[in-house]
Design goal:
Blueprint lengths: L2 E5 L2 E5 L1 H4 L5 E4 L29 H14 L7 E3 L8 E3 L21 E4 L8 E6 L3 E7 L5 E6 L1 H5 L2 H10 L6 E5 L9 E2 L1 H13 L6 H4 L2 E2 L7 E3 L2 H11 L7 E3 L30 E6 L3
Parallel strand pairs: 4-7, 5-6, 10-14
Antiparallel strand pairs: 1-2, 2-3, 3-15, 6-9, 7-15, 8-9, 8-10, 11-13, 12-13
Length: 292
């Protein structure tokens, strides 16, 4: 079970699986930043538009990253973030990547949806992804200390980015890979169409598990003929990691749905959600630090 934390105004979740192996990390909520309106408040995207057609300012995004990273005792210059394109592409962090994707004056990383960092990189300490219904996955190798942050939308999930990232991180020993699958849109709220169902059917067939596809993309009863199909993105990524050899006991899955989870005390939405907002939302960061 993920643990809710609050520090310096930042509300975030952590995975005991990663924490117990010495990996500092966070799956942020939307709270604790400086952005306003549809982006209130810990938004880390300048690409999304609010309901009036405007994007958040780069200075707000940079400050939001700075605040989140400070909780992990890290500076923006010691971190980098993916420029996400819904792919299965991994970026191996170079010593010159510090601040890229975070600091306004630096060019972003090349298109990718996974950012892999090894302890040998002395200048970079953390890697980040941003989500607002897609699946954030933080991976770590408990033997080498290397880490990878993954953004898995349905296209990236169907391309098996999580499994490919785990294989790259494993260094030949998949038993050392730990995976924390963070808050994302849940089975409860993620109604999907035929294109997505076909994509995952192909993927499960490739993994010789064609009979499992309806388990993770079940039909929900509805007034329409045949019902509506929903998808369990977190469950899909968990089972794909297992197919690659990640041990079941080494996978931690959040049960938090970004579309419908609210704060018990205030009733406010805990996370940004693209679907729940009608497309007008920010994105929240998920961050993991290498273990030197």
């Amino acid at each position: 079970m993920f643990i809710k934390n609050e520090s310096e105004g930042i509300v975030y979740y952590t995975s005991p699986l990663l924490s117990e192996s010495g990996f500092s990390h966070m799956f942020c909520t939307r709270h604790g930043g400086v952005s306003h309106g549809d982006f209130e408040s810990l938004n880390v995207s300048t690409a999304r538009k609010d309901r009036n057609g405007f994007a958040d300012s780069a200075s707000h995004v940079e400050e939001n990253y700075r605040r989140a990273l400070h909780v992990l005792k890290t500076q923006p210059e010691e971190a980098c973030a993916a420029k996400q394109v819904h792919s299965d592409i991994l970026h191996y962090v170079a010593v010159t990547d510090g601040g890229r994707g975070i600091l306004e004056h630096l060019s972003p990383l090349s298109d990718c949806d996974g950012v892999l960092l090894t302890p040998e990189n002395e200048k970079i300490r953390a890697v980040c992804v941003k989500t607002a219904d897609c699946v954030p996955i933080l991976l770590a190798n408990r033997q080498t200390g290397a880490v990878c942050a993954v953004h898995a939308g349905w296209r990236g999930s169907a391309a098996d980015i999580a499994g490919k990232a785990a294989a790259a991180l494993a260094d030949g020993h998949m038993e050392n890979v730990l995976a924390a699958i963070g808050p994302c849109i849940g089975l409860c709220c993620y109604e999907v169409g035929d294109e997505l169902y076909r994509a995952f059917s192909r993927l499960f067939h490739y993994n010789k598990a064609a009979d499992e596809v309806d388990r993770y993309l079940p039909l929900f009863p509805s007034c329409s003929m045949g019902g509506k199909r929903h998808a369990d993105l977190a469950g899909i990524n968990r089972v794909l990691l297992e197919y690659h050899g990640v041990l079941l006991g080494n996978i931690d899955v959040s049960s938090l749905c970004t579309s419908c989870t609210t704060d018990a005390a205030t009733g406010e939405k805990l996370f940004f959600s693209h679907r729940a907002s009608g497309g007008h939302s920010g994105t929240f960061p998920s961050i993991i630090c290498v273990r030197k």
